[in-house]
Amino acid sequence: MSYADHLRAALAEPDWVTLQRLAEIATRLGMSLYLVGGPVRDCLLHRAVTDLDLTTEGDALILARTAAHELGGTWKKFNRFGTAKLILPGRARFAPIDLATTRTETYARPGALPDVVRGTITTDLIRRDFTINALAIRLDGAQPGALIDRHRGEHDLRAGALRVLHARSFQDDPTRLFRGVRFEQRFNFAFTADTLQLIAPALPVINQISGDRIRHELELIWGEAQPWQALARLDELGILQSIEADLHVDDWIAVHFQAQPTRDDRFACWAWLTCRLSETSLTRFSQRVNLARAEAIDLEQVRALRAAADVLGRLNSRSSIYRALAEYHDRSLRVALTVIDQPAARAALELYLDQLRDVRPTLNGMRLQELGVSRGPMIGRILAEVQAAVLDGIIATPQQEEEYARQIMAREGREA
User: Fold this and answer.
1) Pairwise pLDDT comparison (81 vs 68), residue with the higher score
2) Which of 23, 78, 342, 354 minimizes the number of CB atoms within 10 Å of its CB?
């Protein structure tokens, strides 16, 4: 079977047709066109290809604009890297097609974003992270379907080997460490011995990349079929500790990732990774990966709930459970249920979420003022006591609420 046949078998039929149309347009414009990187890798592994990453030795922006016009789509350009996203009808979920001009990259310092100049398909492939991604299939010209493999990437695919293309690869871009671990676990591959030796010297450079880039790489791990294995490997290689020294992965994390049906919940994944950190370590971690403030607050709530599980499990009234949990956000409470093992604490959380959180007395501050209570903190104290009585089943009707409030007012009057 030719590479073109492999590619056609790996693609949905509409995508195959789209590539043929794009190749025709590129040829008419006098441009080359290649499918590059991950899609070629997946094709050679006989996996379905859903991403379309294309590159041309011509001008990707002109190609994208022309294709959008002729094929009834839209496009968006990114001038810095000479790239574009092309959205065409017929693509599943309107997934964008990535179009790039072949380029050469240099790095002003370790961990920096690359400086880009136009290049050839040869220079474009050598800038890739691993040999298994330094592959291209030509789509235009006299030999469509020809494989371009300058770095024995197909050989490494067959061997299950992850190999960088040069010795400074991880130092130039430390996010390749995270990607390598993802590929290692996803494909059941292994770093080659020479590549493995390059990891430890690159760990300090992780400190020089932005929190946004680290967060993005971890969130890509959440999308893997077995994210706990990738996390364990990051731990084993010292990569996690380069982000936060107290972060470790053990069987507890693996069990919780495997047991939950909601691994597509990004917040839950963050919580499973971090809920056993100290408050100080969690704050430091959240800041390092630049989590949104709301997400950082809720992660701290999950951590605090887990730490307080013994106390929570000893609460013996509905009103005391309400008081303990009323300030926590629903997301925090629901995810806390997945990390708290004590049955009594879990029961308290479930009771609050299912029955207590929306319980409110019908009595309000305006009615208390009509009953003679002056505006001020007294109103809040009375309403809190009335609510507790409703929660505990001491009172049940609006009339009983008013009578209970009058009793509190009388008591407060005597104590004043």
Assistant:
1) 68
2) 354
The whole-angstrom separation of Cα 118 and Cα 101 is: 7
**Contact of 28 with 135, CB cutoff 8 Å:** no
This prediction has a pTM of 0.88
End-to-end CA distance of the chain: 93
SS3 216: helix
Report which of 293, 355, 305 is spatially closest to residue 332, judged by C-alpha positions.
305
Residue 117's DSSP bridge partners are 104
**Spans of all domains in the chain:** 1-159, 308-356, 365-415
Q: Is the dihedral of CA 327, 333, 335, 340 positive or negative?
A: positive
Angle formed at CA 103 by CA 102 and CA 106, multiple of 5 degrees: 165
Helix and strand counts by DSSP (H, E) for the chain: 23, 11
* Whole-number Cα distances in Å, 171 to 44, 100, 131, 175, 193: 29, 24, 17, 9, 17
Contacts of 64 (CB under 8 A, 6+ apart): 75, 77, 84, 85, 86, 99
Strands annotated E in 102-149: 103-106, 115-118, 136-138, 147-148
Total residues belonging to the chain: 416
Is 3.30.460.10 the CATH classification of the domain at 1-159? yes
In this predicted model, what pLDDT tens digit does every residue of 157-206 receive, in sequence order?
999 999 999 999 999 999 999 999 999 999 999 999 999 999 999 999 99
Specify whether the CB–CB gap between 148 and 138 falls below 8 A. Answer: yes
Which parts of 160-265 fold into alpha helices (H)?
Answer: 169-172, 175-187, 193-196, 199-202, 211-222, 227-236, 251-259
Strand 136-138 to 147-148 pairing: antiparallel
